[in-house]
Amino acid sequence: MTSYEDAGVDIAAGERAVELMKSRVARSRRPEVVDDVSGFAGLFDASALARYRRPLLATSTDGVGTKVDLARRLGVYDTVGHDLVGMVIDDLAVCGAEPLFMTDYIACGKVVPERIADIVGGIADACALAGCALVGGETAEHPGLLESDEFDLAGAGTGVVEADEVLGPDRVRVGDAVLAMASSGIHSNGYSLVRHILATTDLDLESQPADLDRPLGEALLTPTRIYAKDCLALTGTGGVRAFAHITGGGLAANLARSLPPTMDAVLNRASWETPALFRVLQAHGDVSQPDMDKTFNMGVGMAAIVSPDAADEALRVLASRGVAAWHLGEITTGTGKATLV
Question: What is the pLDDT of residues 287-326, one digit of tens each?
Fold first, then answer.
């Protein structure tokens, strides 16, 4: 007799993983979450949106990319969930949306309950930080396609924003200030280049290069900063025109997405010091500055375009929230480009 377990799928392990993660998932619960006894779907009470005049639902989906390979190699599984939430929920923040709920999907070669619980627990903890609920998810065992220690994860989030308060390029004006919010590290973009540098140089995950204050592997796994509540706090002060989440493509390319076609963003490269981790990777990998700029966030994880008279207050609010921020540049007439000068 041949069983499902003989094929590499352990249903009991999956059930054990669900039991282990329940308490941590509960920490992300919002009042609007409604229990679905069957567990097949996540339910959210939409009557909570009645306070909006014309609510628009915003949705985003993303993954963590090859950063999961470093997590696997180091045996650290409770941080990549923060990366997933940051990548998904902070995209919603760009249009001014309040995040409501999120779902996740994990594919793995073998379900190890404690490992899955750590991953999902990290997602739930990060959802709580972002103010959204983790209402459901799926873990799939793929024996034969993934090795027993390999995994990947993705997620989708939903938020809401008032129709006449959607942020974006149409609100931007010449003379507006561009503010930078510091990243916590590489976040979750550019890890294919990171892994290439590790494979072709003398850098080692357990080593501590002279410029770093901790081992390289620990620095590379630093979780993505989650800006959702910080962005909402800024919009509440008034004067915010647009945000740009600095992900794949780097600072200039992502900021250009928030510009109208008749304006440019002129950014002062001297306004901040590139964090040491980026300098270490660039030096050891012999990576050109243009390649660094278009691959990594280089220390800026989110940018805000605000009216000139709102800039000082915006910086004060961010400082009060513990977010390092500074005046990065300004909006000029142009052709829809962002330029580092």
Answer: 999 999 999 999 999 999 999 999 999 999 999 999 999 9
Place of tokens 């180091």: 74
Q: Are 338 and 264 in contact (CB under 8 A)?
A: yes
Nearest Cα to 140, choosing from 6, 17, 28, 36? 17
Read off the tokens for 112: 């190890």
30: which 2 tokens?
Answer: 């919002």
Cα→Cα distances 99→88, 91, 234, 252, Å:
10, 10, 15, 26
> E-strand spans in the chain?
33-34, 43-44, 55-63, 98-108, 133-141, 151-162, 177-182, 240-245, 263-267, 300-306, 325-333, 338-340
Number of H helices, E strands in the chain: 11, 12
pTM of the model: 0.93
Strands 177-182 and 325-333: antiparallel
The whole-angstrom separation of Cα 191 and Cα 172 is: 32
Evaluate whether 243 touches 314 at the Cβ level (below 8 Å): no
